[in-house]
Amino acid sequence: MAEVPKKVAQQTEDKLEQVAANVRGKFEELTKPRFTDKIKDGRFLDQVDHGIDRARADEKRKEQGGSVE
Questions:
Q1: How far is CA 64 from CA 47, 50, 55, 67, in A?
Q2: 43: helix, coil or strand?
Q3: Which domain holds residue 33?
Q4: I want to staple 43 with a disulfide (CB 3.0 to 4.6 A). Which of 17, 22, 38, 59 is the partner?
Q5: How buried is residue 24: exposed, middle or buried, by Cβ count under 10 Å (0-12/13-18/19+)?
């Protein structure tokens, strides 16, 4: 008769460990850095935006009477 309570206790412990692992996984997923956090932290500051530079150069050419293409 002592075997049944031990078996139930072991099953309960296994289920609780599984629940704890699931909670840890969800917590990690919720707390991992998001893309917007990386932007706010300045991760992409060293990358040059060539589109803005090209638009400025095109505008300067327009002002001087040159072709944009």
A1: 29, 21, 14, 9
A2: coil
A3: 3-63
A4: 38
A5: exposed
For 3, counting Cβ atoms within 10 Å of its Cβ (0-12 exposed, 13-18 middle, 19+ buried), the class is: exposed
**Is residue 55, in this structure, part of any structural domain at all?**
yes
20-66 residue pLDDT tens: 999 999 998 888 878 778 777 777 666 666 667 777 888 888 888 76
In total, how many domains does the chain have? 1
**Residue type for position 68:** V
Terminal-to-terminal C-alpha distance of the chain: 89
The answer to whether position 68 is within a domain reads no
| Residue owning tokens 């840890």 | 24
- HSE, side-chain direction, 13 A CA sphere, residue 47: 6
Q: What is the pLDDT, as a whole number, of residue 41?
A: 77
